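User: Can you model how cytidine-5'-monophosphate sits in this protein?
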Amino acid sequence: MTLISALAGKHIVLGITGGIAAYKSALLARLFVKAGAEVQVIMTPSAREFITPLTMSTLTGKPVITEFFTANTGEWHSHVDLGLWADYFVAAPATACTLAKMATGVADNMLVTSYLSTRGRVFVAPAMDLDMMAHPSTSRNLATLEADGVRIIEAASGELASHLSGKGRMAEPAEILEVLERDAAHGCRLAGKHVMITAGPTVERIDPVRYISNFSTGKMGYALAEEAARRGASVTLVSGPVTVSAKHPSVNVIKVESAQEMLDAARRAFDTADIAIMAAAVADYAPETVADAKIKREKQPECELRLTANPDIAATLGAVKRHGQILVGFALETDNESANAAGKMARKNLDMIVMNSLRDKGAGFGTDTNKVTIFKADGTSRQYDLKSKAEVAADILDAVDE
Ligand code: C5P
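Assistant: Here's the modeled complex, given as structure tokens:
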């Protein structure tokens, strides 16, 4: 039986940069082509010192692009067209220099301009000397790229071109192929689906200048929205006030302020949603009345605030959920984590709940990382390592996919 690769028919831009691991890019291109993908190679000028364009164009059946235009014919190579064409953009090997340029948008070569124009999924496989790999500037650039939604295919440890031993070897081509195939297999299933996500805090007004809220920044919900959009879903992101923003054109952001407004918007979107993920930190209470004018300390030395419980958006949607709709909740816990999460899943009629504990360093509000355990209604659960929120978003959507 021949298994058809999930990469069959996909368009891959393979960006090759100037590192010794570039010799492995030939094998990688070959694996992509064998999987049925169309591969367009872009090489940086220094990559051509390590492996010839002839090798790459022979393997892929397409002329290699390095320059913005061909000098003798004046033919312009459109990075915009390439960006639109590419389902995947893979920089392998990705040198410290290219990672820095990608992280900061230094678009002085065809590879980085194409990256900036890419709407598809982006992967980088770093390869460099161990000290460059461990340098804070490389870590910073990788963290920036991750926050921008780029997937890092971790370098391995072992002997390096410098004959030193440490972390910096490019992941093996077979591993890079596997990462992309897994991604493509999952991506297909979300394509064309409508995903509704709530994100951020809600803000409950006390008077025209004051409110009750919480420390949620919306990072987790926005990472989920970007990831779902990158997998081909159309996303409605119902968001409380946050400073983060959504980049992907398939993410439609509906800005709301209070829990009641979030409920109204979420209910409307849920009508046509295949999947709903409740990542918002909805304020549990709102002031019973909102003062029309600013409450003055001079006039009111003592001020009593009466609060009433807000509607539970997840539970409201859980009560009207139709067959086939998937509803996912979050549980941010400080103690009795598993029991609380399982209880919430049942109470709100959720299909899955993503639990994070404030006891775990790097998890919860405001951080760029999260550490979660996913519980499913069938009684199964899985614990994940501390990861970037972009990677956690991918894990959550993989779990939904399953
Ligand atoms: O009960 P608790 O607030 O811990 O439940 C968390 C889950 O329920 C999250 O998915 C959150 O977005 C959702 N929720 C909601 N509306 C509320 C409170 C929580 O949708 N009023």
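A couple of observations from the model: The chain has two domains: 11-187, 194-401. The radius of gyration is 24 Å.
User: Helpful, thanks.
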